[in-house]
């Protein structure tokens, strides 16, 4: 996956894509980055369990980054689903106006023959 300058300063690893990329591309890049952070977190956790390499600070940082990236992904997902639901509501045909009931002047009073 290509990393650009927009991702280098992002603490959680998820940042807005440059304007020339499509929404689909930006979303796929973000999903890939979240997956990478999850894998990194798992790798660091495994090293910590085995006692090789990473210390507790590295483990906590990796878990926090992966968690923040996943939380951001879930917020984006919620916003997409909300926008989709709103679009669906706008595309539904408007409800037909209620039919006017018969008025009193259309009905002969009881006991009076027409």
Account of the protein in words:
By secondary structure, the protein is an all-alpha fold. It is 60% helix and 0% strand. It is elongated, with a radius of gyration of 29 Å. It has a domain at 19-93. Helix 2 (23-50) packs antiparallel against helix 3. The protein has helices spanning 5-8, 23-50, 56-91. Residues 1-12 have low confidence and may be disordered. The termini are far apart. The chain contains three helices and no strands.
Provide the structure class. Answer: mainly alpha
What proportion of the residues form beta strands (DSSP E)?
Answer: under 5%
Number of helices: 3
SSE order in H/E notation?
Answer: HHH
Q: Please tell me how large the radius of gyration is.
A: 29 Å
Fraction of helical residues: 55-70%
Shape: elongated
The end-to-end span amounts to 85 Å
Overall pLDDT level: 76
What can be said about the biggest beta sheet? none
Total beta-strand segments? 0
Flag low-confidence runs.
1-12
Give a short summary of the structure.
With 114 residues, the chain is mainly alpha-helical.
What's the SSE blueprint?
Elements (H helix, E strand, L loop, with lengths): L4 H4 L14 H28 L5 H36 L23
What descriptors fit this protein?
single chain, 114 residues, mainly alpha, 3 helices, 0% strand, elongated, disordered N terminus
